[in-house]
Design brief:
With 32 residues, the chain is an all-alpha fold. It contains two helices and no strands. The relative contact order is 0.12.
Length: 32
Amino acid sequence: MPNWFWAALAMVMIIEGIGPLLVPNRWRQYLR
């Protein structure tokens, strides 16, 4: 796999892990 693939995968994992802590529940309802 190319390096950019792992970089993108890591970004997604970080966003999915940190996102719920930073985004209020009501905002998440609009995003999904």
